[in-house]
Structures are given as structure tokens and as C-alpha cells.
Amino acid sequence: MLIQKIKFKKYSRLSKQNNFRMMVITCPTTSFSTPESAKFVIPENGIFKRDLPDTCTDFGSEEGKKLFGEALAQRHMESYFRLAGQYHAQSEPTYCGVAVLCMVLNGLSMDPARIWKSPWRWYSEEMMACCYPLDEIKQRGIDFDVFHSMASCKGADVSAYRHEDKTEEQFRADIIAATSNDSKFIVVSYDRKAVGQTGSGHFCPVAGFHAEKDMLLLLDVARFKYPPHWIPLSLLYSAMKPIDSATGKSRGYFIIKKSDEEVDLNICKTKQMSKE
Predict the structure, then answer these.
(1) Which of 19, 115, 184, 219 has the fewest CB atoms found within 10 Å of its own CB?
(2) What is the mean pLDDT of the chain?
(3) Is the pTM higher than 0.85?
(4) Angle between the 144-153 and 96-107 helix axes, to the nearest 10 degrees?
(5) Catalytic site residue from 27, 96, 102, 153
(6) Which one of the listed residues 76, 148, 163, 202 is annotated catalytic?
(7) Domain extents for the chain?
(8) Any catalytic annotation for residue 88?
(9) 96 carries an active-site annotation
(10) 153 is catalytic
(11) CATH number assigned to the domain with residue range 57-275, chosen from the 4 options 3.30.70.20, 3.40.50.1000, 3.90.70.30, 3.40.1640.10
């Protein structure tokens, strides 16, 4: 997720809807902002989750469970089990990209070749800093190109496609192929507003597919905000199309699997390519 730097302009008042004291946060536009300008009215005691829009189905609801059972019978939930075993909440509001990448790399059982907590080797969010400093990611998040670079630097075999690179039918075929086995995963990069959610750019791994309903299961790493949920494939595909102001391009999706080649994880591919 990309956010803008925030300057606070605060005042207290009583909300007509509840007795919370409120503050108004004015967010001026930066090169990484999505809206031209924005004002958010936020309770001083914070926000507890968001409701999913009607277009999405909560994974834990009765309908969500029914979709899971049916998709499992259709053999389109193979991605779910390895991803669910690594499912965690992003530790910072801007860390959706690095959190998803951790899930995927650990789900693929990729060895980081460095110690996490002695004596264990394991991917964690702070280990994602290679091409880009974590302090910068904490301030701005990461975009489509940065995610691609980071995944490649960690030794993954990454195929990246922007919205215009693939038709909806081709996207669906890739989803079916990925959710029918557990050797590769798909990560989607999309605009939350385009699916009726709050926020802007976001990354999510695809954990399953319901063929009859034509819906995808997203394991949202912003677990403090939205639960894992089912979403129509056509809606998600269209949500990749809006232009990301950080790159001037559309968003898209990635197919990630283990590389067949030996990779020196001590060499940053992005830095190496920039020298060439």
C-alpha cells in the first residue's frame, strides 16, 4: 500500500453518530499519494476494522465456508494450505507488499540463506530490505515495480503482468493453473477503491478459486482492517486497471515460484541491473 506523508490538523468535536471524540487529518498530496487531496475523520481512540462491501464475501461467514468447501471439491484450493500456514498480519500499515512476499517465500519453502532468529533461517518482514530501505518502505509502501524487484532478489522465479498485458480470460486461466497446484502462487496488485474498499494500492495473495461463482479467495494481510474474503474475478481484474500515481502505470499480478537456477542471495539484482 502507498500512503502520503501526513500533516495533522486536529480538532475535537462530538460525532452525531456516536460519542467518540474525533479528529480531522488533512493529507496534502505527494508524489506517492493516490487522491489529489483527502480529509479523513478518525476517532481519537482509533478504528476497529472495516466492513466488507457487498461485492465481497467474508471467508468466515456461512456463505464463505460453503464457497470454500465447493472450491475444495473442485480442486481449486491447492494454494490455500501452504499460504494459510504462513498467514500473518502486516506489522505496519504500509507493509502489505513485504508481508505478502514473506508469506509467498515461506509458503514455497524458500531458504533465505541467512539467520532470522538463531539458529533458524526464515523470511520475516525486516529481511525484505534489499533494493530499498525499510525506513523508506515504512513511509511510502512499495509499488508494482518494487515488489517485482524484491521478489526477484530473493531468488524467486517471477512473471509480472500489468492489466493491459493479459485479458480477463488469460488472467482466469492463470488463476486456475495456480490454484490447482501448490508449486506457484499468484499475488495481485490492485486499487482497493475500485472494489468498494477503503484505501488505495494493495497487494494480496490468491488462495483459491470457485469456478462456478467465478470468485477468488484473497488472504488479506491487513487483517486489522479486512478479513480474508471471496471477490468476483472480473471485479478484481478491473481493479488492476486504474493508474497508480507512483508509477504512472496500471497495476497487475505476479506468478511466483521457486527458481530452477541457483541464485546468490548476497547480490542485489536490482543494483546489478542498474549498473549494467
Answers:
(1) 19
(2) 84
(3) no
(4) 30
(5) 96
(6) 202
(7) 7-43, 57-275
(8) no
(9) yes
(10) no
(11) 3.90.70.30
